[in-house]
Give the backbone structure.
Amino acid sequence: MFRSRSLPTALVLLLCCSYVARASADPHHASYLKAKQLVEHTIATLASTNGSFVYTRERHRFYHSPKPWQTIDRQMRGRFMLVDAGSGLFVADTMLLHDKKFPSYQYLDRKTFADIDYGDTTAGASTTDDRDDFLYQSSIFTPRLVLQDFLRSAESRFFKFVSGKTASILYVAAGDRHITIVIDPATSLVSTIDVMYADDMLGDVVRRVEYLLYDSSGRSRYPSHVEERTFGILMNDLRIKRETIRADSTLIVARIPTGYNLAPPAAKAKPVITSTRYNEHIYFFELQPAATRVLLVNFKDYLLIAEAPLSAENGELILTKAHELFPKKQIKYFLFGHHHPWYLGGVRALVHAGVTILSQPQDTNYIRQLVTFTHHLHPDLLEKEPRALRLQTFDSTIEIGDDKVLMQILPIGAMSQHTDDYLMYYFPKYKLLFEDDLIGISKDKPLRAASIRQKGLYDGIKMYGLDVDTIVQSWPVDTTSETIVPFANLEESVRLIKK
């Protein structure tokens, strides 16, 4: 009897000794074990696995705004509930807009994710990336799912554990997101969660969720006041209360189609650039899938590029194509028609190439931000080889040219009904106007009355007294939109407003 009991005990002692020996010999593993233990204790401190909550929410979102960094603001209210033994989440979020309510529903468990967007009635097609996005965005409601994501992650994804007055856990999550969880060891409560991800234009973007207040009534605790910020700008402000009535997840579960499955993420399309010669001085580059037309002006002694969409990668393609066409000419200037990503997103490549950026004064701070933002996660050339920004400002109409070609840069700003920094480019010799995106004329439908943006473009042309035959538009270069438009068509669309 003694021998049959002593063998398992010896094995246990041997395993324990091996475990302690590995921890002492491998500081990274020991650090991981400490982090894991703290996270497990923190999860145990949070609300039970079947908790149900109501909330009010102020939501702010960046949009294609008149000025950089402006947000569109919405009042929301809703409820959320932990599902799948605390490993999943159901959210019923309602947007309040013009005295109307637009509900949305999201459901995540260990097997699936479904999303019914605001005002829709059935779950739309979702990808595994959509599921991951929701998981990390769920931290505005509860830190639980991110904590569990850390526990599910392989030890090889663990990066660092720093312990002191607060404990910081850093790990690499799905989609190459870098997550930092800060926990107060004294209370085992999460203080902040930072999710850092790569953006082609903005670089290393950090979403910080801060748990400002916890409700401690009952045996478990939950965050009752949560704020989320990006670039220091408030994105979400939630006030949360526990409720005794369980939320009804059948509002979405019953509407998930039979055979519904998450699709794999779409492969990122490789950018393609083509060039078109308009005349000896004007060339157009078309980039897909950005659906953007770039203007290249060939002056006697140098080149000017106008517009660079979305990313430094596109900016590099534009530079390469320009050098192919004119290998001996300096690219001297870069110009953008307004500050939105389709026209300024590739500016970092131009800065790296030593090109002078022409800008109105109101955009200079934004340009400096784009140039100095870090791109550690997906380094571009400017991250690898920093170069000084060459910036030249103008605050009124300017002309660039020589004895062969003249280009007028004409601000129309808020008249565009789009942005406060809007520009048009005019070539008097060719009666040609280039602008970014104000015209919305279809290729296969009858001409309609001009939109307010289209009317703004017309008013700008008339204000400057321009003699225009042809308008060339930068975006969208696709199969349905007219982007090379006779001025007569624009004028007729304005006449249709009066009719």
About this structure: Confidence is low (pLDDT under 50) at residues 1-7, 11-15.
